[in-house]
Amino acid sequence: MDGARTATVNPGIAKGSWSEIFRNGLGLYSALVIGGIAMNATQMLVIAIIMPTIVRDIGGASFYTWAAMLYTIGAIVGGASTGMVWSRLGARRAYTLGAGVFALGTVCCAARPNAAALPQCRCSGSERWPPA
Average pLDDT of each block of 10 consecutive residues along the chain (132 residues)? Predict the structure, then answer.
Protein backbone atom coordinates (compact mmCIF):
# COMPACT_ATOMS: atom_id res chain seq x y z
CA MET A 1 0.00 0.00 0.00
CA ASP A 2 2.28 2.69 -1.24
CA GLY A 3 1.07 6.17 -0.55
CA ALA A 4 -1.37 5.11 2.17
CA ARG A 5 -1.88 7.72 4.86
CA THR A 6 -2.03 6.91 8.53
CA ALA A 7 -4.20 8.73 11.01
CA THR A 8 -2.62 10.18 14.10
CA VAL A 9 -4.36 10.50 17.43
CA ASN A 10 -4.28 13.88 19.12
CA PRO A 11 -2.94 13.20 22.63
CA GLY A 12 -4.52 16.42 23.91
CA ILE A 13 -8.09 15.07 23.59
CA ALA A 14 -9.43 13.43 26.74
CA LYS A 15 -10.83 9.95 26.19
CA GLY A 16 -14.12 8.98 27.78
CA SER A 17 -15.04 5.68 29.35
CA TRP A 18 -17.99 3.43 28.60
CA SER A 19 -19.44 4.08 32.03
CA GLU A 20 -20.15 7.71 31.04
CA ILE A 21 -23.20 6.65 29.03
CA PHE A 22 -24.88 5.70 32.31
CA ARG A 23 -23.99 8.84 34.29
CA ASN A 24 -25.75 12.19 34.73
CA GLY A 25 -29.25 10.87 34.05
CA LEU A 26 -28.31 9.10 30.83
CA GLY A 27 -28.74 5.58 32.24
CA LEU A 28 -32.38 5.12 31.25
CA TYR A 29 -31.81 6.48 27.74
CA SER A 30 -28.74 4.31 27.27
CA ALA A 31 -30.63 1.24 28.51
CA LEU A 32 -33.48 1.97 26.06
CA VAL A 33 -31.10 2.32 23.12
CA ILE A 34 -29.16 -0.81 24.08
CA GLY A 35 -32.43 -2.70 24.64
CA GLY A 36 -33.79 -1.62 21.26
CA ILE A 37 -30.64 -2.73 19.47
CA ALA A 38 -30.64 -6.04 21.34
CA MET A 39 -34.32 -6.59 20.52
CA ASN A 40 -33.73 -5.97 16.82
CA ALA A 41 -30.70 -8.27 16.80
CA THR A 42 -32.67 -10.98 18.61
CA GLN A 43 -35.55 -10.69 16.15
CA MET A 44 -33.17 -11.01 13.21
CA LEU A 45 -31.62 -14.07 14.87
CA VAL A 46 -35.05 -15.61 15.35
CA ILE A 47 -35.87 -14.99 11.69
CA ALA A 48 -32.61 -16.61 10.61
CA ILE A 49 -33.06 -19.64 12.87
CA ILE A 50 -36.80 -20.29 12.92
CA MET A 51 -38.07 -19.11 9.52
CA PRO A 52 -36.72 -22.12 7.58
CA THR A 53 -38.64 -24.45 9.91
CA ILE A 54 -41.80 -22.36 9.69
CA VAL A 55 -41.57 -22.21 5.91
CA ARG A 56 -41.12 -25.98 5.71
CA ASP A 57 -44.11 -26.54 7.98
CA ILE A 58 -46.49 -24.25 6.09
CA GLY A 59 -45.09 -24.97 2.62
CA GLY A 60 -44.03 -21.61 1.26
CA ALA A 61 -40.28 -21.52 0.61
CA SER A 62 -40.67 -18.97 -2.18
CA PHE A 63 -41.95 -16.40 0.35
CA TYR A 64 -39.12 -16.78 2.88
CA THR A 65 -36.96 -13.97 1.53
CA TRP A 66 -39.92 -11.61 1.17
CA ALA A 67 -40.83 -11.90 4.84
CA ALA A 68 -37.22 -11.38 5.97
CA MET A 69 -36.63 -8.50 3.54
CA LEU A 70 -39.81 -6.65 4.51
CA TYR A 71 -38.94 -7.03 8.18
CA THR A 72 -35.47 -5.57 7.59
CA ILE A 73 -36.79 -2.65 5.54
CA GLY A 74 -39.43 -1.93 8.17
CA ALA A 75 -36.83 -1.96 10.94
CA ILE A 76 -34.62 0.49 9.04
CA VAL A 77 -37.48 2.87 8.21
CA GLY A 78 -38.80 2.65 11.78
CA GLY A 79 -35.40 3.38 13.27
CA ALA A 80 -34.70 6.25 10.90
CA SER A 81 -38.04 7.94 11.59
CA THR A 82 -37.94 7.71 15.37
CA GLY A 83 -36.73 11.29 15.86
CA MET A 84 -39.48 12.75 13.71
CA VAL A 85 -42.19 10.72 15.46
CA TRP A 86 -40.87 11.64 18.92
CA SER A 87 -40.79 15.32 18.05
CA ARG A 88 -44.39 15.23 16.84
CA LEU A 89 -45.97 12.92 19.42
CA GLY A 90 -43.63 12.94 22.39
CA ALA A 91 -41.83 9.88 23.72
CA ARG A 92 -44.71 8.39 25.72
CA ARG A 93 -47.29 8.59 22.93
CA ALA A 94 -44.76 7.39 20.34
CA TYR A 95 -43.88 4.32 22.43
CA THR A 96 -47.56 3.61 23.08
CA LEU A 97 -48.42 3.88 19.41
CA GLY A 98 -45.41 1.77 18.46
CA ALA A 99 -46.34 -0.94 20.95
CA GLY A 100 -49.90 -1.00 19.60
CA VAL A 101 -48.78 -1.23 15.98
CA PHE A 102 -46.28 -3.96 16.88
CA ALA A 103 -48.92 -5.96 18.80
CA LEU A 104 -51.38 -5.65 15.92
CA GLY A 105 -48.75 -6.78 13.41
CA THR A 106 -47.75 -9.70 15.63
CA VAL A 107 -51.34 -10.91 15.91
CA CYS A 108 -51.77 -10.45 12.15
CA CYS A 109 -48.65 -12.52 11.40
CA ALA A 110 -49.72 -15.24 13.82
CA ALA A 111 -53.17 -15.46 12.22
CA ARG A 112 -51.87 -15.87 8.66
CA PRO A 113 -53.15 -19.14 7.18
CA ASN A 114 -50.22 -19.71 4.81
CA ALA A 115 -46.82 -18.42 3.80
CA ALA A 116 -48.22 -16.46 0.86
CA ALA A 117 -50.07 -14.12 3.22
CA LEU A 118 -47.11 -13.60 5.59
CA PRO A 119 -45.17 -10.99 3.55
CA GLN A 120 -48.36 -8.99 3.06
CA CYS A 121 -48.94 -8.88 6.80
CA ARG A 122 -45.29 -8.11 7.56
CA CYS A 123 -45.51 -5.06 5.32
CA SER A 124 -48.82 -3.77 6.63
CA GLY A 125 -48.56 -4.73 10.30
CA SER A 126 -45.71 -4.51 12.74
CA GLU A 127 -43.15 -3.19 10.30
CA ARG A 128 -45.09 -0.21 9.02
CA TRP A 129 -43.84 2.20 11.61
CA PRO A 130 -44.47 5.08 11.84
CA PRO A 131 -47.90 5.15 10.29
CA ALA A 132 -48.11 7.33 7.19
Answer: 62 79 88 85 80 71 71 80 88 85 79 69 51 42
